[in-house]
Specification:
The structure holds 2 protein chains of 2 kinds.
Chain A: E1 8-9, E2 14-18, E3 23-26, E4 42-43, E5 48-54, E6 57-62, E7 67-72, E8 79-80, E9 85-91
Antiparallel strand pairs in A: 1-2, 2-9, 3-5, 3-8, 4-7, 5-6, 7-9
Chain B: E1 4-7, H1 11-23, E2 27-33, H2 40-44, E3 47-52, H3 63-73, E4 77-79, H4 89-97, E5 101-102, H5 107-114, H6 116-126, H7 141-151, E6 155-159, E7 169-171, H8 177-192, E8 197-201, E9 207-215, E10 221-233, E11 236-242, H9 249-265, E12 270-278, E13 284-290, H10 297-304, H11 308-316, E14 333-340, E15 342-343, E16 349-350, E17 353-354, E18 356-359, E19 366-370, E20 377-378, E21 385-393, H12 396-409, E22 411-413, H13 419-425, H14 429-433, H15 440-443
Parallel strand pairs in B: 1-2, 1-4, 2-3, 4-5
Antiparallel strand pairs in B: 6-7, 6-8, 9-10, 9-12, 10-11, 11-14, 12-13, 14-21, 15-16, 17-20, 18-22, 19-21
Helix pairs in contact in B: 4-5
Classes of the chains: A mainly beta, B alpha+beta.
């Protein structure tokens, strides 16, 4: 799977991970497993933060920079549009 | 015969099944998710029932919703199409116990076909050649050495946990085996979280060739020749043709008779496909049984004149096959291109969206099976297949010319489609000469 590092700088201290393509947002690798990230969790650059499924193709989204997950802006299994903001990360 | 059939599917195959039902005077019930309200099968079916939210697991995979829809509309039978619940033995069973006819093989046959190790055992007992090896996890290098010696080099190491080329190594001689095992096992652990690997005889330049069969509940079977499906990307078929440029009459007969002997052995009825790998020396290895109508079924229909969906419905209704082996005719050549909503210029990335400025090919010898139309929105929730472009020609050369012409007529905006990729394949010298195997696209160049 291709590594996509979609990120948009919002302010010097936070950025938002955005969907690279229209699809379905998944917080966990499978329904039985724990979410990749929770609000308040510290993450490193390159960590997988969520999955977008589009037409049966699963794309892992990774954090551009390390930091703390500040907000998750969509619900698990919600449809997301291309470029939609998904996860807000505060740069450590 | 049935008066009303529910189609438990979406997209082009749902449209395809509605068409045959209409021609047979059978009423149709479509089912659809919230994302498919505007889909063509909903417009074409006599009535349609919403079965849930867009995600497949909340709609098209909900057995209870589908059976309830059939009950409420008074449908007598369910056609599952391909994918979704089509090869789900428990769904076939649930239909039966609800008094509905499942248009396909029995739940028991589906279960046998779906259990690879049991199916393999049945095949070996029948004396059918399968790909040698693959019986168990390799536990030591000595065991691997002995097994490879017995299978004969080259052998291939494969991961138990998954496919897609990872944890896979082709080994040409004993000196490379030990290192190959270590590397493949490490790759498998990283990719699938499972380091288990097994050994198989490596089939060089394999072609994927499959046989279409039909069997009724009165013991009658026919095979409708082969389909060549070697043009694949990551095990997904992209171009199929019938007949195969590689198969002669004696090989066709051998494969056809093998296919029917397997079907008889597992009491398989309705339409089915037996998949084989065929090597350069025309050795035939049985791969698996596909217990459903296949995506690529139209190429068989185009050269035999048999409507396979009609036969499926007749068989499920208790009827006899409308044809015998001696009167299966074969005329000309048919090729199918699977047109996907993917961007061939960007590593085949999915490309859902709204269809704009659509012009579909037509004219002599062209068949288009699709559910797309102007302003239709291709949802991101399902498969990327949006259109099957099928052509017929008197021979392979004319079918290729016709496909080149048909591809040049295809216009669509709003989404990316794989038409440019198909255009390039149909200009390729090896493809035109029929020099194809399952590795064709790996040699075809970057970005493809």
């Amino acid at each position: 799977m291709e590594q996509l590092k979609e990120g948009q700088i919002m302010s010097p201290r936070t950025y938002k991970v955005t969907a690279p393509l229209t699809g379905t947002f998944y917080r966990a690798p499978s329904p039985e497993e724990r979410p990749f990230v929770e609000i308040g969790q510290r993450i490193n650059a390159g960590d997988v933060v969520c999955i977008i499924e589009s037409m049966k193709v699963f794309t892992e989204l990774r954090a551009d920079q390390g930091g703390v997950v500040k907000n998750i802006l969509v619900e698990d299994e919600d449809a997301v549009m291309r470029n939609q903001e998904i996860i807000e990360i505060e740069v450590a | 015969m049935f008066k009303k059939v529910l189609i438990a599917n979406r997209g082009e195959i749902a449209v395809r099944i509605v068409r045959t039902c209409k021609e047979m005077g059978i009423k149709t019930v479509g089912v659809f998710s919230d994302a498919d309200k505007e889909s063509l099968h909903v417009k074409y079916a006599d009535e349609a029932v919403n079965i849930g939210k867009p995600l497949s697991k909340k709609s098209y995979l909900r057995q209870d919703h589908i059976i309830q829809a059939a009950k409420e509309t008074g449908a007598e039978a369910i056609h599952p199409g391909y994918g979704f619940l089509s090869e789900n033995a428990s769904f076939a069973e649930a239909c039966e116990s609800s008094g509905l006819v499942f248009i396909g093989p029995s739940a028991k046959s589906i279960a046998i076909a779906g259990n690879k190790s049991e199916a393999r055992k049945t095949l070996i007992d029948l004396g059918v050649q399968v790909i040698p090896g693959g019986e168990g996890i390799i536990s030591s290098k000595e065991e691997a050495m002995n097994l490879a010696e017995r299978l004969g080099y080259p052998v291939i190491i494969k991961a138990s946990g998954g496919g897609g080329g990872r944890g896979m190594r082709i080994i040409n001689d004993p000196s490379a085996l030990a290192d190959g095992l270590t590397i493949a096992s490490g790759e498998a652990r990283t990719a699938f979280g499972n380091p288990d690997v097994y050994l198989e005889k490596y089939i060089e330049k394999p072609r994927h060739i499959e046989i279409q069969i039909l069997g009724d509940n009165h013991g009658n079977y026919v095979y409708l020749g082969e389909r060549e499906c070697s043009i694949q990307k990551r095990y997904q078929k992209l171009i199929e043709e019938a007949p195969s440029p590689f198969v002669d009459e004696s090989l066709r007969k051998k494969m056809g008779e093998t296919a029917i002997s397997v079907a008889r052995a597992i009491s398989y009825t309705n339409a089915g496909t037996m998949e084989f790998l065929v090597d350069a020396q025309k050795n035939v290895y049985f791969m698996e049984v596909n217990s459903r109508i296949q995506v690529e079924h139209p190429v068989t229909e185009m050269i035999t004149g048999v409507d396979l969906v009609r036969q499926q419905i007749l068989i499920a209704g208790g009827g006899r096959l409308e044809l015998e082996q001696d009167n299966v005719r074969r005329d000309g050549w048919a090729i199918e291109c699977r047109i996907n909503a993917e961007d061939p210029e960007d590593n085949f990335m999915p490309s859902p969206g709204i269809i704009d400025n659509l012009i579909l090919p037509g004219g002599p010898g062209v068949r288009v099976d699709t559910h797309i139309y102007e302003n239709y929105e291709v949802p991101s929730f399902y498969d990327s297949l949006i259109c099957k472009l099928i052509v017929w020609g008197k021979d392979r050369g004319r079918a290729i010319s016709r496909m080149q012409r048909a591809l040049s007529e295809f216009r669509v905006n709003g989404i990316k489609v794989t038409v440019p990729f198909h255009k390039r394949v149909f200009q390729d010298r090896d493809f035109i000469q029929g020099n194809i195997d399952t590795h064709f696209l790996e040699r075809f160049g970057n970005g493809l």
